[in-house]
Amino acid sequence: MKLSLAPAALIVAALAAATLMAFGFQSEATRQDLFLVAGTGLFSIALFATRVVPDIVATLLVFLISLAVAVAPAGIVFSGLASGGFWLLVGGIVLGVAVVTTGLGTQISNRMLALSGLSYQRAVLVVATAGFLLGILIPSTIPRVLILIPVAVSLGTSLGFPAGSRGTMGLCATAAVSTLLPTYAIYTANLPTIVQFGALESLYGLKTTYSGYFLAQFPVNLLRFAVLLAVLWRFSTDKPDPQHLQPGAGAKLTAPQTRLLVLLVCAITLWASDFAHGIQPAWIALAVATLVLWPKMEILPKSAMKDKIDLTPALLFSAIFCVSALARHVGLDVALANTLIGKLALEPGRDFWNIYAVFGFSVVLSHLTTAPAAPLVLAPFAEPLATATGLPIVTVAMVQMIGIASPLLPYQAPPLLIAMSLADISTGLLTRICLALFAAVVLLGLPLTIFWWQFTGLLPAHG
Asked: Is 155 exposed, middle or buried (0-12, 13-18, 19+ CB in 10 A)?
């Protein structure tokens, strides 16, 4: 696989420079810990971003190096294995394998094929729309990725694209990105949003509503959706091959497919109603996966865990979590934030500059950790940033969310990295999509949002 190291090198260089600035404000002992964690983080970022070694090798290397630097106990290094996200992934991987193995993915893709016809562009639109709509139903990105990726693979096969072809890869990339980045317009769709505004309510008593959040965020996320379609519509030059279409578009579901579909509907219903029952998405996924693996259900063969199920994406997630946990443990995130905030030249009345500066600050901090961990770093800085800019805290918080939702590289958003591992999506393709969406946000999204906020009153006029 041909890899381009330039994007990763740029990010690594930027993070290294920013980290070195932070070192100047620390004691000697703390500076050594910061240096070790920064080096570990930068090396991990390079591995995740370039994929120069297999995912499992990168994962084990991150764990080994994190243990070797000895700046945190093993409980912190392996804390990702105890997180709900890890077990959500384990359950989701089992569900994804079941969707493919039973042929349910093909059944669903055949019905999607009825909407798209023999048009790659319409297929991209159908998958992207499905990804966004799942954001309304399921309040966690990883389950959406795990459900939609196998369907996208099956849809590619139904259109006559061979496995690993550009056509199938483009549909999988559409599924991965559309379930994550445009859904940041939905308050309940992504964990970083929930954590961010939960922390702000705890710290400052700030409350927001579903509709208020959507009203503030929809312009920039509508742009993301449009740019995603524009990038992927022309990605594949392959034409659907009607001679290789999978038969049985109207075939009846088999008994295993019916049982799996019932379990998936139950899981989606429970995920969508977690506000009412309070059961974590991870435990729902784990319970459903247990039933899927139960031999008496006759959904997967008894040897499935040995022959079909690869838990590498879940271990990869735990390695990402390890890097951010180390940064938080030694205070690298706070040290960098405290250093940068004084260098942003913030001043009341300079709304365009202030919003771009807060956006850039949020992007840097979110890339030092990952999107799910970024709000824990950024939320405490909402009030100092609001004071320095003269903006309301809620406006600063909305800008921070745009920054968190604007990854430069796929590694910063674990669902994208997981999708790459599940579907063998090209690193270069997802990197180009991330960079295109980031450029669209910087050049069009932020100015459009600023004017929209001035119109709606979220950005007060200065008298």
From this structure: buried
